[in-house]
Structures are given as structure tokens and as C-alpha cells.
Specification:
The chain is mainly alpha-helical. It is built from five helices and three strands.
């Protein structure tokens, strides 16, 4: 009974999600919205899910595999940081300026460039500009 109630309760939300996703895909198909490509490979980790889905451990695993062969960087939104805009981590940064998880990665992987920024396209562009040797 409880399972049926949950299903019935959530069904309208799934239809709404499907409609929004369909409209978004249509806008991309008709070139009303456009995607951006960069001259270097980009690996996106994560999706619409919020915290607790293992994004940070997966990013750390990915960096640990790639960092010895490639000049890598990590771009995060910097959840709960006290700054706005693009910030490239340096020795003066703290968990308050870039967020606790980017700060953890910055300390754990000293050869990896770590940056935060709300807008991903702008963030990758800034990383390319400030760190032209990224691979």
C-alpha cells in the first residue's frame, strides 16, 4: 500500500521532469541553446543528484590515475564557499574561500590545479587561460 502511494504521489513529478527534459533537448536540437566544446578533454563527474553520491571520491580516483601522465585540473562549484566567481586555488586559499571538498583535493593533489566557479564554461575558459599547459 505504501509503495503504491509513493508511486502515485511521485508520478506527476516524473511527467514534469520528462516535459522539462524534452523541451531542453528540443532547444538543443533546434540550436536555440548551444553547447560548448573545448580544445582539451573534459571529464564531467556528477549529475542532477545532490550530495552523498560519491562525486568527490570518484574525482579523487580519476585524478590519482591521470595526474602522473597528464597535466590535470579540477573545477568545482565550491559548495558552501564564502566567495563568488572564479577562484584558482593557491597557498592562501582555505576551505572557506574555495569550499571544503575542493580544498581537500587541493591539499591531497599538489600537482593538480584546483579551481572553483559557479559557471562551468567560464571556469574551464579561465583554467585554459591561466594554465595553458593543461592537458
Amino acid at each position: 500500500m505504501k509503495k503504491a502511494f509513493t508511486y502515485i504521489f511521485l508520478l506527476p513529478f516524473s511527467f514534469l521532469y520528462g516535459i522539462v527534459t524534452g523541451i531542453r533537448n528540443y532547444l538543443y536540437d533546434k540550436n536555440i541553446l548551444s553547447s560548448v566544446e573545448f580544445s582539451l578533454p573534459v571529464i564531467c563527474i556528477g549529475n542532477l543528484a545532490a550530495g552523498g553520491t560519491g562525486k568527490t571520491p570518484h574525482a579523487e580516483l580519476t585524478l590519482s590515475v591521470l595526474q602522473n601522465e597528464w597535466k590535470t585540473a579540477l573545477l568545482s562549484r565550491g559548495y558552501k564557499r564564502g566567495t563568488k566567481g572564479f577562484v584558482l586555488a593557491d597557498d592562501a586559499c582555505t576551505a572557506k574561500t574555495i569550499g571544503d571538498e575542493p580544498y581537500q583535493i587541493f591539499r591531497k593533489f599538489p600537482d593538480v590545479k584546483v579551481a572553483v566557479g559557479e559557471k562551468r564554461v567560464h571556469g574551464v575558459s579561465q583554467l585554459q587561460k591561466r594554465c595553458p599547459d593543461l592537458q
